[in-house]
Q: What sequence folds into this?
């Protein structure tokens, strides 16, 4: 049985990824900061829930301890929890909002990954998937053929570039664990509701599931989207 933790899994891409991995036979822990929302999602999916706020060290430690006590190891960690900029452009950019975005999207990945390392090291095939974004790719945001080059989400984009760099650094620093970053594609979720459009979560979760289910000989330190490898 593969033991999997997905952060921010009470809705959106995290929820759909949980549903798909449960179908594949994983034991999935739904990580959610809100007990009611997390419990509801876990009940709907017939799986387990851990309270996990990626901005709160104590909450992260408790969640990892719960999984450790119940399972003794963690095979797959999906660092999915994230927040976006409230508006396009620079009008809504300010220090406190930027700190919150970086605390959630970037430091959150560090908190959960660091806490999970000892449990991941007890797995025969430890895998970490970091949900980044094409908006964090220097290549995509400067390539006029890519939609990311026409969208300015200043702080969010910078935070996702940091998530991608964390992926590369962790892959180098911990070669016994596979770390890959994923761009799920522009998707209709609560994160994008203010901007409109986006493809269904069912389509975007494909690449997350693919990277969460890689085998022993799978890649590490790569950035993937649905079509294949994505340039940093
Ligand atoms: P979403 O529906 O808004 O889901 C975000 C999830 O993150 C929610 O479960 C939310 O919980 C959780 N979350 C936020 N802050 C948290 C915290 N401090 N601790 C724990 N959980 C927290 O958005 P989504 O589109 O599925 O986003 C999932 C990931 O995909 C994000 O990392 C996002 O940046 C990335 N992504 C999305 C798109 C897209 O087009 N949608 C594209 C590229 C990348 P609450 O319900 O409690 O708020």
A:
């Amino acid at each position: 049985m593969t033991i999997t933790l997905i952060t921010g899994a009470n809705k959106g891409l995290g929820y759909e990824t949980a549903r798909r991995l449960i179908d594949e036979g994983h034991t999935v822990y739904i990580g959610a900061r809100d007990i009611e929302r997390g419990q509801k999602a876990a009940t709907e999916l017939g799986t387990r829930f851990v309270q996990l706020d990626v901005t709160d060290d104590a909450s992260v430690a408790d969640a990892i301890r719960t999984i450790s006590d119940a399972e003794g190891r963690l095979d797959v960690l999906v660092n999915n929890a994230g927040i976006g900029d409230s508006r396009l452009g620079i009008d809504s950019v300010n220090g406190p909002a930027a700190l919150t975005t970086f605390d959630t999207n970037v430091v959150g990945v560090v908190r959960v990954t660091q806490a999970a390392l000892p449990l991941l090291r007890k797995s025969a095939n430890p895998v970490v998937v970091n949900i980044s974004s094409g908006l964090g790719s220097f290549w995509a945001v400067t390539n006029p053929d890519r939609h990311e080059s026409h969208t300015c989400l200043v702080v969010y984009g910078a935070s996702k570039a940091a998530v991608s760099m964390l992926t590369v650094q962790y892959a180098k620093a911990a070669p016994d664990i596979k770390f890959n970053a994923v761009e799920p594609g522009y998707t209709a979720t609560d994160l994008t509701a203010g901007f409109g459009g986006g493809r269904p979560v069912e389509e975007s979760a494909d690449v997350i599931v693919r990277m969460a289910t890689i085998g022993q000989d799978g890649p590490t330190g790569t950035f993937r989207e649905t079509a294949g490898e994505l340039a940093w």
